[in-house]
Amino acid sequence: YLKQNDITLNNLIFRDTIDLNLLKTLSFEITLVDHHVLADLWKPFSSKITEILDHRPKDPSWKWDDKVQDKMQMVGSCATLVANEILQNQNIQNNDLQILAKLLHGTILLDTVNFSKSADRTRELDIKVVEQLENILKIPKTGLLEYRSKIFNDLSAARTDITSLTPIQILFKDMKKLGHIPISGMPILIEKYIDIPGSKEAIFEMCNLHSTDILILMGMQIEGINVTRDLGIYNKNSFTKINEIVSFLKNNKQPDLFLQDKQSNMKGLMLFSQGNIKATRKH
């Protein structure tokens, strides 16, 4: 999708390509997007943060100064909040606005599963912003639903295409951490991932890289607008800890994951189907 919009890897900036020592000598402001809790690496720059755009529940343990503009809102896609800010900015050149509108439009459709009712991620602002972006892009009303479906299907296929990734890269593709425990989200079901040659070794390696005995795996499969989820919890040695995690997840009702045991063909991996497809890591 980036290639279709003439955006190459050279146009992208990644955290590990930024010289943090040089950054400390510069005057700048930071807007946090899609998160509001700083990683240790970025805590020295907390005074530079002036604005937060995020759509996940607020972490009560993280406090910000009053000078920081809190623009957190529960919407289906954080791209909705970004687009809403851009649409209120009158100083953007039309050509740049066209490119931004196309990228944001596709991202919102992908995040909301094309406004799927079963996924239940869509909020009023998501719909409003997408309609505004479609006006900018001059997308005709005739065939609009088909146009949205094509964008969603193309992006969904690209996101789930892991053919060029190694098993360890799949684990890192969408990895977050809860304390010292890695949580790897992946665009295939866990039961299918562990059938990939080298996947079991990758799980061992992931644990070793993060100095932990526990790894949480969250799988998702999207077919059209239908979503299927499963959950895997791997433990190398920490049987007491993993039993505590499983007990908490099964007994927690906010939200209830509706977990059902599944057969696992990997030693140390507990596998569950997740009946509540609306629940994600943000919960």
Automatic annotation (TrEMBL):
UniProt protein name: Putative exopolyphosphatase prune1 isoform x2
One of the record's GO cellular component terms: cytoplasm
InterPro entries referenced in this protein's UniProt entry, alphabetically: DHH_sf, DHHA2, DHHA2_dom_sf
All copies of domain DHHA2, residue ranges: 154-283
Similarity-based family: Belongs to the PPase class C family. Prune subfamily.
Residue ranges of the TM segments: none
GO molecular function: exopolyphosphatase activity
Highest taxon in the source lineage: Eukaryota
Gene3D superfamilies membership: DHHA2 domain (3.10.310.20), inorganic pyrophosphatase (n-terminal core) (3.90.1640.10)
